[in-house]
Design goal:
alpha/beta; eight-stranded mixed sheet; 9 helices; 14 strands
């Protein structure tokens, strides 16, 4: 039985928007009908590149397009509240890139708005939709490594990024934490939930954003997570979970893994590998598929990326920023 097509609008025209759109075009039950940018030229160039029928030089026109079922918001996170809010106000379902917003207050506003309109809203945490990550989560929940004791994860880029780059711009929510640190923080939340205590240290740029941040999250059951992110030092981008009866290691690219290894006391290591075709960017396809499944079903959120979890991650990111002294201009 052929599934009903879901019609997408893409809001923004940067690199992640291009990657997501390319994945949508390979999905027979997805149709990209419109794209919007703050620039007519940018929107038209993106539409021509991907064969999208309508290009808008403003966000409102896309939000009001009745042919759009879901809007994918791919702006810098400093604009997520405004862009996603505009689309929700117009009655569109929304998939919003991570970090979900600049802070937990903005995230709460979006969730409240979506629930008041009975509309679907999801953070684009593609990692949570990856089949291998879902398999890893099931193993941990089933007690494969016993009681979780520690989580370690890192994500750092060598850069260097010039001062004018968006990653160094406070007005765009720059710094390592919201752009890269959201992945290790979200990974720790996936395994252990929201921490009871947050400790963090950072090295800040001249502009006042974090160049690198180290975090120690703690839970009331005694578990800890040691997390790092950086925009001036390349890291292995690995993760491990240690339990009372074993360990799981993701040797590289923990948020889009091609394999992980389960070590259990007294047994040979067991490797789990991705299916053919599940490359680094294919998590975007799984993410899109989850959104379309939920929209067709009339659901207002996804159990894979629940809104309560996105709010919890934003609270943790707020706590980290409070401890490292990073505040964005729009926050006053």
């Amino acid at each position: 039985m052929e599934r009903e097509r879901v019609r997408w609008g893409v809001l923004a025209t940067g690199g992640i928007a291009a990657s997501f759109t390319a994945n949508l075009l390979d999905m027979p039950d997805a149709e990209v009908v419109a794209v919007a940018s703050r620039s007519d030229a940018s929107a038209k160039a993106f539409a021509e590149r991907f064969g999208i029928p309508r290009a808008y030089g403003d966000w409102s026109s896309l939000a009001e397009d009745e042919d759009v079922d879901v809007v994918y918001v791919a702006t810098p996170h400093s604009a997520h509240r405004a862009a996603a809010g505009l689309c929700l106000e117009a009655g569109r379902a929304v998939l919003c890139e991570k970090a979900f917003t600049l802070n937990s207050r903005e995230a709460e506003e979006l969730v409240t708005l979506a629930r008041s309109r009975d509309l679907f809203l999801m953070e684009a945490m593609w990692m949570y939709c990856h089949p291998l990550i879902r398999r890893l989560k099931a193993l941990v929940d089933d007690g494969a490594i016993g009681e979780v004791r520690t989580v370690q994860a890192d994500f750092g880029l060598a850069g260097p990024f010039p001062p004018a780059h968006r990653l160094r711009d406070p007005a765009q929510g720059g710094g390592a934490l919201l752009d890269l640190g959201v992945y290790p923080v979200s990974f720790a939340h996936l395994i252990l939930g929201e921490p009871s205590e947050v400790t963090a240290r950072a090295t800040l740029s001249d502009e006042g954003v974090d160049l690198r941040t180290g975090m120690l999250l703690s839970w009331e059951n005694g578990a800890h997570a040691l997390l790092n992110c950086s925009i001036d030092a390349g890291t292995p981008v690995t993760a491990s979970i240690t339990g009372s009866k074993g360990r799981i290691d993701i040797p590289h690219g923990f948020f889009y893994p091609d394999r992980f290894v389960l070590h259990r006391d007294g047994r040979e290591p067991q490797e789990f590998t991705a299916e053919p075709g599940d490359g680094p960017r294919d998590s975007l396809r799984h993410e899109a598929g989850e959104v379309m499944h939920r929209v067709r079903a009339g659901d207002t959120e996804s159990p894979l990326v629940p809104l309560a979890g996105s709010l919890a991650v934003m609270r943790t990111l707020d706590s980290v920023r409070e401890r490292i002294g990073v505040r964005y201009p729009s926050e006053g």
